[in-house]
Amino acid sequence: MTAATHSTLFPQVPETADAVLDGLDPEQREVALALTGPVCVLAGAGTGKTRAITHRIAYGVRSGRLQPASVLAVTFTNRAAGEMRGRLRQLGAGGVQARTFHSAALRQLQFFWPKAVGGDLPRLLERKIQLVADAAARCRIRLDRNELRDVTGEIEWAKVTQTVPADYPAIVAKAHRDAPRDPAEISQIYAMYEQLKRDRSVIDFEDVLLLTVGILQDRHDIADQIRSQYQHFVVDEYQDVSPLQQRLLDLWLGDRDNLCVVGDASQTIYSFTGATPDHLLNFRTRHPGATVVKLVRDYRSTPQVVHLANGLLSQARGRAAEHRLELISQRDPGPDPVYTEYADEPTEAEGTARRVRDLIAAGVPAGEIAVLYRINAQSEVYEQALADAGVPYQLRGAERFFERQEVREAGIALRGAARAGGNDSLLDDAEDLPAQVRAVLSTKGWTSQPPAGAGAVRDRWESLAALVRLAEDFARARSGATLSDLVAELDERAAAQHAPTVQGVTLASLHSAKGLEWDAVFLVGLTEGMMPITYAKTDEQIEEERRLLYVGVTRARHHLTLSWALSRSPGGRASRRPSRFLKGLRPGSGSLGTVASGGSGSFERGAAAGRRKPRGPVLCRVCGATLTEAGAMKLMRCEDCPSDMDEALYERLRDWRADQARELGQPAYCVFTDKTLMAIAERVPATGGELSSISGVGARKLDRFGTDVLAICAGGDGGAGHDDR
Fold it and tell me: CA 682, CA 347: separation in Å to the nearest integer?
């Protein structure tokens, strides 16, 4: 038997049922031994809930108390279901059904449809958005692409909360829900959508649950057949169950109570999809004799991270907060969380990129680092900063900024307006570049005031607003810049960020980070209006924002940095305030009790965070004007000032960079960006000191590539090679 057989990739199957229990902590062991009756596992972040429930199932199977085919374990994602099946196989409990709610229901629906209804099951719609568009057209209601996505989401929400079209307006009003359109219009579209489905003999994913519920309610013989097969049920992430899923679970159970649920009310962050923690919080009321086990030993995060997470929840209010779990870290101590205040957003992004680069240089793998933000529109400035720092990155749950449909469409519109120049009537009343951009983007959905609520319309607006802000910053940095200049700048940024995806730092929204973890996490943009988000108005919505930040904090194993910027752009008024959720947690913000106070981390200001002295104005070396745009500061000149670049040297540097990128398996910008190569070709450094004075050539890159670059600048071919340190 080889050593690899004993590795974590090929774990040995426990020899006996009792061996399945080896290595479990006392609370996890209590879960594993509770094989009958209702069981409620309240599991905090990082406490090994999946380990506990898979060992529970495996112990029941291996001890002969559970038959594999009689167990149905349900969760919310295919990834989680697959992980559960894999762990059960490793524990010698193959044959247990581990599925999502939809997968389990669809399997039953396909099997019983001929018996319950007759004929073949209607075709399942992979995507309902086209049918919603057809329904809106039938109702003579015009929806753009983003409104269409939002209305589709509303229909999904209505169905999982078991709201029929006629009741939708009243239910929305009662729930204080921000509807993306007039509720009466959505009700009309919803009703027509349901009619079109019937006419075309198709069903959607929500219908899979609804129809299964209907059959089990109406056909007791079928319900009995399913109940005779499945005797034991396990539900993971129970805080995310919708009313419709709970109704299906009740029908699967019948009058039995062999149900084990696992969840954490403090991680309820998907209420906009219909998820509610009420079923978890009411479990002991519905099942008075339930066994309740709390998992609070945190195996993921250091005591310092756990201390902050506990402090964050200590300030929470509402019903979920009454049931919060206070975690106890099982790891060795680590560094304190770092709180960093920056002057503006670009500086925050640059400071974050430098910290990321330092961590990688210290041995933290890039794939074990994440930068998490509230909305996807925040990604662009971090994409740019990481690219400038030569750090590879990957986006999770979103397209790269310049690949988003609305950004591509905006680019086309701006390019067309730039070509038309004075012949475009849109620009007649636009006095400057930002006004021109606002005029053009107003045709694509940008408005001076953001739309209410969340959703695709809001996401689109945020992306367009980011372009407007970029235009404002560009105009301040380059007096007299034209629309064509801006388009060229956008093209260059897009080209730099369209490099192949590689293993790198994760950029993700807080919502898409749920269920994941990293060695180092950067929580950025933590200002009022972003965390909590500006459209969170009610107490319940504010508390969900707090829980979202809690999820972000508990993604970190070892390093945690929290940051915010006092203004949006350089030189702007410092009018922003750090998130209210950090009050009593960050140093100098007061204390809100023993949990939240004392040893809660270190506070830094942006310059200190970057380990650099405050810099004075950067002047153009040609005309002497003050430079504010990052690309111009790299070149040390205004971009429209005459260039003395050695074109042949620039091309040799580009060829060398391409070779290095291929050898390293990284995008070219991770070696040097185009702007850095241009600066090198203009200044032709002869020494390491001269090379290191160029922005974008830090100590690490000087050490790694300096010999090659200086050789090329001296007329050689840069063949000295690089050191893969």
Answer: 26
